[in-house]
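Problem: given the chain below (124 residues), write out its structure.
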Amino acid sequence: MWSIAKEAEAIVNTRPLTYISDDSDHIPLRPIDFLRPSALLSGPNPDDPPDEWQPIENTREALLVAWHKTSEALNTFWKRWTHEYLTSLREQYKRTHKTPRSHEEEPPKLNDIVMIHDSTLNKG
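Solution.
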């Protein structure tokens, strides 16, 4: 039973939140990208030769390189989040709420899709 629940969780967490366009060379945003960026969700291939063990480098330079890569990944993810996912939510909202200038006279109800964006909000 536990295995079925874990498989269902993996399926839900890897479903795409954004569309894959032809001009895009990256994978769509997925819920797992919030939890574990670049997560490898499949097991090892038994046909691949085993990797040779390499000690983890924890020198100052290696840690700085890792920190810079993490910072770049966060910036890339934040840009994709704001430009792809939030844009798709806005497009969906415009299709479902036919009002002039996307202005609602009534406050949102339970299960309504709303646009949330604050340009002054810090990322991360």
